[in-house]
Amino acid sequence: MLASMAWYVRALVVAKWRPLSNTIHAMLAIALAGALPACGGSTPASSGGGPGCPEGAGNTLPGSVPLRGGVTGPNISGQICTNGSFAVVESLAGTGATDPFAITLGTSPSASSAAGNSWIVFQSPEGATSGEAEAVIGLNAASPGTYSSADGACAYVIVCADMPYTSNPPPVCGDGGTCVPTQALSQCYQAQGPTSCDGEKSATTVIGSWSLTLTSVAPGVEDSAIGTLDQTAHGSLTATLVADDPRLGGATLSVTF
Fold first, then answer.
1. Which residues contact 156 (CB under 8 A, 6 or more apart)?
2. How far apart are CA 81 and CA 51, in angstroms?
3. Strand pairing of 155-163 and 185-192?
4. CA dist., res. 202 & res. 108, Å (int)
5. Neighbour-count burial for 221-233, b at 16+ CB within 10 Å, e otherwise
């Protein structure tokens, strides 16, 4: 249930990491493409998502609530815009996933990729033009409680800051001979569980850690676009992330919703 399909493809290619939850990603792409109402599915987010945030509201999902918080580390610091982020609990019934439910949270598709805007306002790294955050964490029940990486649930958490080349980036040329300017580099940090949250139950290398607390989970709201049950949840997530480039050190994603 996260951001746009274009973002997923870019994140997977640039970060060079294991596949995310393919089933959930496809569901999210369909749902978010419909420009669903923001922040809970009924009350639009205000245009002021925080200092430096773009105007307007990003696409969210029925039953979702906004995130408050951000990412910190030796080489990264940024605040997530409340008007372009979401968290929601969903049923994974029928997907073949290892867990019956999952919480999905993150930022919406970039506010204006051409202008370099995103729903994360970075203080560092210097020159970051945009960025994304997303997480899918499996749950054994859609109920209040504390869940952590020690539970062995399927999970994936990622935060990326997009960095432009400083000068004369080499072009990327396709098989047909068409060349385009190189896209921005990404400084990415991640944590992941022992399996992916999809029907393939793909084994992954455990990286980083997380602790999720759900203080409430409301009755579900049917998402007619993809035929799933979205449940409004409140709580917090703290994830210890490992950088793709070891020289960057780690980072901590800390959000409430």
1. 20, 21, 134, 135, 136, 137, 190, 191, 192, 193, 196, 197, 204
2. 8
3. antiparallel
4. 26
5. bebeebebbbbbb
Q: What is the 3-state secondary structure (H, E, C) of the chain?
A: CCCCHHHHHHHHHHHCCCCCCHHHHHHHHHHHHCCECCCCCCCCCCCCCCCCCCCCCCCECCCCECCEEEEEECCEEEEECHHHEEEEEEECCCCCCCCCEEEEEEECCCCECCCCECCEEEEECCCCCEEEEEEEEEECCCCCEEEEHHHCCCEEEEEEEEECCCCCCCCEECCCCCEECCCCEEEEEEEECCECCCCCCCECCCECEEEEEEEEEEEEEEECCCCEEEEEEEEEEEEEEEECCHHHCEEEEEEEC
Read off φ and ψ for residue 150, nearest 5 degrees. Answer: -70, -15
CA distance 49 to 69: 11
Question: How crowded is residue 48: how many other Cβ atoms within 10 Å of its Cβ?
Answer: 11
- Model confidence pLDDT, tens digit, residues 107-147: 986 555 444 568 999 999 988 878 999 999 999 999 999 99
> In this structure, which amino acid lies at residue 168?
N
Q: Kindly report which listed range (45-59, 177-191, 195-209, 212-226) carries the lowest average pLDDT score.
A: 45-59
Question: Quick one: which of 230, 193, 237, 244 has its CA closest to 215?
Answer: 237
The one-letter code for the residue type at 41 is G
* Cβ atoms 160, 131 nearer than 8 A: yes
Q: Residue with structure tokens 């070891």?
A: 246
Report CA 118 to chain centroid distance, whole Å. 13
